[in-house]
Specification:
Its EC number is 2.4.99.12. Pathway: Bacterial outer membrane biogenesis; LPS core biosynthesis. This is 3-deoxy-D-manno-octulosonic acid transferase. Keywords: Cell membrane, Glycosyltransferase, Lipopolysaccharide biosynthesis, Membrane, Transferase, Transmembrane, Transmembrane helix. Helix 5 packs across helix 6, helix 12 crosses helix 18 and helix 18 packs across helix 19. The strands form 2 sheets. The protein has a 7-stranded parallel beta sheet, with helices on both faces. Strands 10-11-9-8-12-13-14 form a 7-stranded parallel beta sheet. Helix 17 links the parallel strand 13 and strand 14. It is of the alpha/beta class. The protein folds into 2 domains: 212 residues, 3-Layer(aba) Sandwich (Rossmann fold), CATH 3.40.50; 191 residues, Rossmann fold, CATH 3.40.50.
């Protein structure tokens, strides 16, 4: 199977080569880390005699997820070395910014030679994969090397489950080789077991994203950015975060319609993908509004007459959410399936998002169940929501307070995850934790089939 996968990966790389080359030239993507990706030529650890926790996070969201885990692990296990790998250029840049001087590098692609080389160089005690990373060659190589493998904050959407179900026979051995699958909820647990994960290895922890969210609007990063942008106490900030087209246009239209009656309204826009920063800048130029780029605030200073700010810097959105009173979480009016709405909830912002949020179905259900967020289905509904927040301050504050209380109630997943990893490190995976009955049912059904 390993060699079949190698051939398939090579063919995929050849097929994707024109797109990769175009993206490299046009957007500056896919330029770095190819020795690490193709050959597993990762950096050397300070000492291979010390135990090592290898944390892998695909991109920005997963990189942010690691922060509370790293803090807790290093506090309890100062003798361990933590190394961090990522896949995307933006994830790598954020990891360098957030976690240096720890060793940070690009993860090997799932070729047998690259994963085996990287494992031989690093010699991790535990390989930790964030959320959903089922790479057969990598996981098999780790098992052969005697490295324990864990998936943390595991999630398996209905769409992903349907896709993986088509190759369940191929995935069975991969899932069986994972020593721990720590999942966010029971629904995800049942899906992992149905695909082939042993029920005894699947544990429910909740979502670590609740733990990593800051709840203090007065944190140093938010204070610094607010001062840099010239945000005043009298301002009401609408932040459209992690947006995709046409959500920037929609947010801008809402601002232009409401700002004449509400001159204290300020709009912040954060596109999800950095390659779209210039596209959104051109949109703002055409609109005729007075606006600024976040990337130029240090040199140009804030313009008191500019009421729109384009946040064209990666890795700051978590702090910017703390500067807003009204939030629109993007990727939810198009086909991306939504973005993380826990961060604005933790700050107590009045939250809205579109109807297409299947990637965060569990969080959305919690928020809507507590009446802590509003679904807006189009531009008109977003305008009505923002207008109501501006006119009815108690509506906005109560909405935000319920969201903040929900986040507080959901915290604790990191502690549970660390406990499971500690047990795994001792080569004794939670033997006293029985499998949930419904998970066992799925395992029996899979075996019978």
């Amino acid at each position: 199977m390993a060699y079949v996968l190698n051939v398939a990966y090579v063919l995929l790389l050849i097929a994707a080569a024109p797109y990769l080359l175009y993206s490299r030239i046009r957007h500056g993507k896919y330029r770095d880390g190819w020795r690490q990706k193709l050959w597993g030529d990762v950096p050397r650890r300070r000492s291979r005699r010390t135990p090592c926790l290898w944390l892998h996070a695909v991109s920005v969201g997963e990189v942010n997820l690691l922060q509370p885990l790293i803090a807790r692990w290093e506090k309890s296990h100062p003798d361990w070395e933590i190394v961090i790998s990522t896949t995307t250029q933006t994830g790598y840049a954020l990891a360098q910014k957030r976690y240096a001087p720890r060793m940070i590098f690009y993860a090997p692609l799932d070729f047998t030679w690259s994963v085996e080389t990287s494992l031989r160089i690093i010699r991790p005690t535990i390989l930790v994969l964030a959320e959903l990373e089922l790479w057969p060659n990598w996981i098999a190589a780790a098992q052969r090397a005697g490295t324990k493998v864990a998936v943390i904050n595991g999630r398996l959407s209905a769409k992903s489950f349907r896709g993986y179900s088509r190759i369940a026979g191929w995935l069975h051995s991969t899932l069986a080789a994972i020593d721990l699958v720590a999942v966010q909820n029971t629904e995800y647990a049942e899906r992992f077991v149905a695909l082939g994960a042993p029920a005894k290895n699947v544990c429910l922890t909740g979502s670590m994203k609740f733990d990593g969210a800051s709840m203090d609007r007065g944190n140093p990063a938010t204070r610094k950015l607010s001062a840099l942008a010239g945000i005043q106490d009298s301002d009401v900030v609408l932040l459209a975060g992690s947006t995709q087209a046409p959500e920037e246009q929609i947010a801008l239209d809402v601002f232009q319609k409401l700002s004449p009656q509400h001159p204290n309204l300020k709009l912040l826009i954060t596109p999800r993908h950095p390659e779209r920063f210039d596209e959104v800048a051109a949109l703002l130029d055409r609109s005729g509004v007075r606006w600024q780029r976040r990337s130029r605030l240090e040199t140009a200073g804030s313009d008191p007459l500019a009421r729109v700010l384009l946040i064209d810097v990666v890795g700051e959105l978590g702090a910017w959410w703390g500067a807003c009173q009204i939030a629109f979480v993007g990727g939810s009016l198009g086909r991306r399936g939504g973005q993380n709405m826990i961060e604005p909830a933790a700050y107590g912002a009045a939250i809205s998002f579109g109807p297409n949020t299947w990637n965060f179905k569990d969080v959305v259900q919690l928020l809507l169940g507590k009446q802590a967020a509003i679904v807006v289905r189009d531009a008109a509904e977003l305008q009505s929501f923002v207008a109501r927040c501006l006119v009815e301050s108690t509506f906005a504050s109560h909405l935000g307070q319920r969201a903040k209380e929900l986040v507080l109630q959901q915290q604790g997943a990191t502690d549970r995850t660390v406990t499971l990893l500690e047990t795994l490190a001792a080569k004794n995976l939670a033997p006293t934790l029985p499998a949930h009955p419904s998970w066992k049912k799925h395992e029996n059904k899979r075996r019978a089939g």
